[in-house]
Structures are given as structure tokens and as C-alpha cells.
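lol ok so funny story. i was supposed to be doing the assay writeup but got distracted and ended up predicting the structure for this chain instead. priorities right. anyway since i did it might as well share w the group, maybe its usefull for someone
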Amino acid sequence: MPSNRLRRHYRFPKLPCRTVSHGNNGEVAPASTARPAVQEAVRFDRTPSRTALVKTFQPPLVRSDALTVSLPVPPSINHQYATVNGRRLLSSAGRAYKIQVGQQVWLALAQSPARLLLQDRLQSGPLVISIRFFFASSLRRDLDGGLKITQDAVCEGLGINDNRIVETHLYKHVDKANPRIELSLSTLSPLAPST
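and the output, tada:
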């Protein structure tokens, strides 16, 4: 994924820094005025932090016919899009989510010995996607509000077209302590011939 392209289309937010920096004459500047040393990931759906997300997510599972991965909950549908000059565009929160998910999917593939076989199968047949949403509350979010952005982000991370998905399964659960998505993308198994 070319980093120059991402930098042109997305501005990383300026976050308050927790470190201190030394001035030209060796003085230590207060933490509130220091420049951030490292950019942190954008937080979605009021999750505690990116480090907490990494600790609570299940490790990805890459098989020759399926990818199973835990992801952060996407921004709500109201925060996914913005209207600019009468056109409906993906918002900065939506773009940041797609980048984060794409990177997680890419890393899961890169660390798996089955990646080449999986990529070959995902490129050649119809696909099935299953998403289990674990929200902090069952009444605040619609079940289908995160489908499109998650599906797009995962398929872009895998380098496949999402129009190959022919079957979708959505489930809604509540987990106040650990809101997340558990996503599975697999090839559609052929039906056995009837006799």
C-alpha cells in the first residue's frame, strides 16, 4: 500500500502529546506544548485506546479457504459520510477506519503461510461474508450500518472486488467491555449434486 497516496488523501489528526521535548538550549518543555513523537490511531466508537484493542482482539486465523479476523467497530453511519458541495463523500473517520482495517487484514495475510492459496481462492470464486457485531449497547447502533464500510475495507485490503460477495450473514451482540467485529470471509462451497 503506497504511503504517499495515503498521505495525500488523509490528514492525520494532531493529538495531544504525552512526552516532553528538549528546546534548543536544553530546557525541557511541558508535555502540553511538546510536538507529538508518534501519531496514534484514531479511536472509533469510544473504545479505550488502540493498545487496548490489540490486547482484547483474537488473533487472525488464515486458512486456505477463509480469513477470520477481529476488527474495531466502524464509525456510525452518521459519521461515515460527509456532504461537500452537494456530494456525499467518505468522511475522514471513514477513511481512517478503512486504512486501519486494510492494514490489519494485510498484516494477517503477510504472517500466514496459507496466504497464497487463500488469495488464489478468493480471486477465483464467489464469496461469503459473516460479521458478528459486538456493540456496547444493543439500542444505539443499527445492525447494517457498519456492513458496507467494513466489507469495502476488508476487500480492499485483500485486493479483491466486493461484488464477488454473494452471501452475507450479520449478527448483533452486546459486549460493553470489548466492542468489536468478528469477521469471516470465505469461499462459497459448491453444492453437492442432488441424486
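Residues 21 and 34 are 6 Å apart (CA to CA). The chain has a mean pLDDT of 75.
back to the writeup now i swear
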